[in-house]
Amino acid sequence: xxxxxxxxxxxxxxxxxxxxxxxxxxxxxxxxxxxxxxxxxxxxxxxxxxxxxxxxxxxxxxxxxxxxxxxxxxxxxxxxxxxxxxx
Length: 87
What we know:
This protein is α+β, with helices and mostly antiparallel strands and 87 residues long. It has helices spanning 10-18, 36-44, 48-51, 69-86, and strands spanning 2-6, 27-31, 57-59, 65-67. The chain is globular and about 40 Å long.
C-alpha cells in the first residue's frame, strides 16, 4: 500500500500520527515539485485530478484508492487489528 501525502497537509499529518505506517508496511510518497517520481506514480494510478482536491490518498495493493483522512485512518486501524489477530 502507498499513502500519498504532501508537506503542510493537516489531514495527511493526522493520518500519519494515527497509525505507524512503517509497522504496517505502507510506503509514503510525498507529492511536491522536488519529487517527480511520486507524481509519476500518482499519475500511473490515474489519481492526479483526485489529488488536486483530496489528500491524503491511500492506494491499496489491488490498486483501489481510499480518500479522506478519517476513512483512511479507520481502514488502517482495522488493517492493523487484522494483522495483530493473525499473528
